[in-house]
């Protein structure tokens, strides 16, 4: 791939990310949730219980931002923190029932939006697209990203 085309990848990914977050912010009607903290909430939902460090690493974002967003999510009743009994230096982040319900609604909104976009773009081989993006993201963060299975 020539340099001009490969340099467009970041632009395309940025456009897709901003458009999906804007759409989610417009469709989301849950108090205290924004497109930014929704990604963290969905990550906790996928993994059942995690540490802030794991979230920051796996989502390739600043740990301070994760901490601030977790404070918002905790104050709004979507997550709770519990001490890891095996290693008291770590705190587990887990969903509350309110958080579980929010994740279900968010998942429906995102699924609907992505289906609309993929259909409009006439993306025929979605499995290849998903697989290649998963490999790229895994390589960037230096760890395997397992597909979400729920």
- The helix count comes to 6
Q: Give the overall average pLDDT.
A: 89
Major sheet summary line: 3 strands, antiparallel
The strands making up the biggest β-sheet line up spatially as 1-3-2
- Described by the principal axes of the CA atoms, the overall outline is globular
Order of secondary-structure elements:
HHEHHEEHH
Write down the Rg.
17 Å
Q: How many strands appear in the DSSP assignment?
A: 3
Structural class: mainly alpha
Low-confidence stretches: none
N- to C-terminal separation? 36 Å
Helix amount, in percent? 55-70%
Task: Give a summary of the structure in a few sentences.
By secondary structure, the protein is mainly alpha-helical. It contains six helices and three strands; from the N terminus they run ααβααββαα. The protein has a three-stranded antiparallel beta sheet.
Description:
The chain has a three-stranded antiparallel β-sheet with strand order 1-3-2. Helix content is 66%, strand content 8%. With 150 residues, it is mainly α. The chain is built from six helices and three strands; from the N terminus they run ααβααββαα. Strand 2 (79-83) and strand 3 form a beta hairpin.
């Amino acid at each position: 791939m020539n340099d001009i085309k490969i340099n467009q990848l970041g632009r395309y990914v940025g456009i897709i990310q901003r458009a999906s977050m804007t759409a989610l912010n417009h469709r989301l009607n849950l108090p205290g949730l924004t497109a930014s903290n929704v990604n963290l909430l969905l990550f906790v939902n996928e993994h059942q219980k995690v540490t802030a460090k794991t979230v920051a690493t796996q989502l390739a974002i600043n740990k301070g931002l994760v901490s601030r967003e977790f404070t918002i999510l905790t104050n709004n009743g979507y997550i709770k923190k519990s001490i890891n009994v095996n290693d008291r230096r770590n705190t587990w982040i887990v969903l509350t029932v309110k958080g579980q319900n929010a994740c279900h609604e968010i998942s429906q909104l995102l699924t609907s939006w992505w289906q609309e976009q993929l259909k409009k773009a006439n993306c025929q081989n979605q499995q290849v697209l998903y697989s290649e993006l998963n490999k790229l993201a895994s390589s960037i963060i230096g760890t395997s990203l397992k597909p979400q299975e729920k």
